[in-house]
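Protocol step 4 of 5: obtain the predicted structure for the target chain.
Materials: sequence only (see below). No template structures provided, no constraints applied. The aim of this step is simply to have a reference model before the mutagenesis design in step 5. Sequence pasted as it appears in the construct record:
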Amino acid sequence: MTGETETLVLQEERAPLANLEARAISAWFGDRKVLDRVGLIMPAGQVTALIGPSGCGKSTFLRILNRMHELVPSAKLAGEVLLDGEGIYASGRRITDARRQIGMVFQKPNPFPTMSIYDRTRLGQPGGALSGGQQQRLCIARSLAIRPRVLLMDEPCSALDPTSTRVIEETMAELANEVTIVIVTHNMQQAARVSAQCAFFLAEAGTPGVIVEHGSTEDMFGSPRDPRTADYVNGRFG
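Step 4 output (structure tokens):
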């Protein structure tokens, strides 16, 4: 099979880019409400960055987008998550179907989570053979192996050096042509570099997290409507 033929086959097998939408999402851990009626459209073929200080519900929201929130026994949820208009929490919808279409890359790379220490070392490879950046790229490749339509990334560069971070960001730019990407980041420069749109989360004075403002990244960083957004993206708090 020629390279041209292989490319055509891959193009034929690739699912169309997906729109992801959250409608009026509220979330609880036990009696503690952590998100309040959050709504956001994450357009197909774009990178959406979720920004905001720690504890405002960004990562919880990200996990809700592929039903990982359900892994916490005390977790509760209200609202809808729609993948191309179809609810991933709909009655009869299998959780495995949602996670097959909506993949996830975590903050700390763990390329071989089910392998024993013996299995990892039995080929004579040293434990540190892969750098942090290489491990994270391997995790991204593993997430893409099942051809998800959406890729969620929870602070994928927080433990990486600047060079590895740049490579991951370049990878994200390439992947945006193939999958819809949603990334949580505390790095404002990264959000400005990689995303087409941003959503600013905030939880004030013990209240649950909400989206204060969302829009194009250019507008959010250049002319935000809410003074709290301006303060955050300019480093005055958080």
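Step 4 remarks: The chain has one domain: 20-234. The CA atoms of residues 108 and 141 lie 15 Å apart.
Proceed to step 5.
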